[in-house]
Amino acid sequence: MKLKYDQYIKQLMGVTGIHGVFLVTSFLTHILLSNYLPASQFGEYSFYSSLIQLFVVIALFGQHNYLTRELLKVRTGFSKGFSGITKKSLGYSAIAWSLLAGAFLGSNAIGWFNIEWPIVVLILLITGFIVVGTIRQAVQKAFDQVGVSQLPEKLLFSAVFLLTLSTGVFWLKLDLTILKVMFFSASAYFISQIAGVIIYASLKKKQPPKELEKAPESSSDKPATRWYFYFMSVIDIIDSNVDIYLIKYFEEYETVAIYSVVKRVAMLLHTIIYISNYALGPEVSKLYYSGQIQKLQATVARIVRMNLSFGAVALVVLLSFKNIILSLFGEFYHESITWTLYSVMMIAQFVNVALGAPNQVLSSTGFERYNLWVYAGGVLLQVVLGSIALHYYNITGMAIVTLISAFYWNGLTHFIMERKVGVKILPFNR
């Protein structure tokens, strides 16, 4: 039977276009910061950005995945109570953010972080803005607004942030400092969230969601829990940033800056799987909860082939134009980043692109707890091996550990997905 992918492709193209613009503006922003901030301060900014990512998932309390899936279950007849589910999500996140703020303020007061107090306040504000926006995105994703849900955070925020930084540097001739950069970032996030609420309210009235195929009455389903999504999100973001935290612990901010630049370039590859999974998640839930497993298999296989194709082309381009790309960030980074460090980081992200679909499939079908255990093992693996590698091989050793970790968690999640969901990355017969 010929499958139709019109809706998925439409969602995918919308996300791709939006994220493409965000990618360009974000890349330009980091080029500007790397050239106009001293290496030590750029490393400090990179560390704060990683810290904010961790704080966001703590304050979200797992809502960004849980809420989308539960609202889709409402639409397919598995459960009821759209308003109650959404209000609970907002309430839990508000409590989590408040507890986080108290812990962060207290930790900084006793010297655990030693961050300037204005920056502490800005970090907490940015965290709150991102949390609110992510919950709004989760609701929109469940109601067929996948692409447009990203407009405020991706397009508006990135444009305003780059514009204010550029105006300050080139027109007002400001000397950039960490405090100024964080203030510009917080202001841009605030503006984007105001716009996000306006866009969502407008579309909710004008574009009601289409009817979905109802789930069979005999279908069984395990109750989803926020706790699995919560711990999974926290472990996931630690797994994504543990390399930065370890380097900050063992090295100086200059080394953090060097590693952050090559990681930023490698994330160009990761964009492929990010875009793919962002659009794939709601589609997986729809097919799984309506019992269309064969169509789910075909959809996943097709998306993986697309990811492989785009990823291979992107890898060749990034490796071929290494010197040109790194020179954009300044002579210091161009000279400091070795070929080995650069190539290993690119290959690690290519592995994530080629094999990264199982994570999203498990999260969207009720098996998120397995992601939790895999990510926990990945964090432990990186901490143990990373501590040893940094001691003997510096940041190149940390890059190799990142590659090992990519093979570990992608391979294991695929094995679990095949056993639990009955879906393979590519349906080859054994």
From TrEMBL:
<feature type="transmembrane region" description="Helical">
    <location>
        <begin position="178"/>
        <end position="203"/>
    </location>
</feature>
<keyword id="KW-1133">Transmembrane helix</keyword>
<feature type="transmembrane region" description="Helical">
    <location>
        <begin position="117"/>
        <end position="135"/>
    </location>
</feature>
<keyword id="KW-0812">Transmembrane</keyword>
<dbReference type="Pfam" id="PF01943">
    <property type="entry name" value="Polysacc_synt"/>
</dbReference>
<feature type="transmembrane region" description="Helical">
    <location>
        <begin position="89"/>
        <end position="111"/>
    </location>
</feature>
<keyword id="KW-0472">Membrane</keyword>
<protein>
    <submittedName>
        <fullName>Oligosaccharide flippase family protein</fullName>
    </submittedName>
</protein>
<feature type="transmembrane region" description="Helical">
    <location>
        <begin position="339"/>
        <end position="358"/>
    </location>
</feature>
<feature type="transmembrane region" description="Helical">
    <location>
        <begin position="370"/>
        <end position="393"/>
    </location>
</feature>
<keyword id="KW-1003">Cell membrane</keyword>
<feature type="transmembrane region" description="Helical">
    <location>
        <begin position="155"/>
        <end position="172"/>
    </location>
</feature>
<feature type="transmembrane region" description="Helical">
    <location>
        <begin position="399"/>
        <end position="417"/>
    </location>
</feature>
<feature type="transmembrane region" description="Helical">
    <location>
        <begin position="12"/>
        <end position="33"/>
    </location>
</feature>
<feature type="transmembrane region" description="Helical">
    <location>
        <begin position="310"/>
        <end position="333"/>
    </location>
</feature>
<dbReference type="InterPro" id="IPR002797">
    <property type="entry name" value="Polysacc_synth"/>
</dbReference>
<feature type="transmembrane region" description="Helical">
    <location>
        <begin position="45"/>
        <end position="68"/>
    </location>
</feature>
<dbReference type="GO" id="GO:0005886">
    <property type="term" value="C:plasma membrane"/>
</dbReference>
<dbReference type="InterPro" id="IPR050833">
    <property type="entry name" value="Poly_Biosynth_Transport"/>
</dbReference>
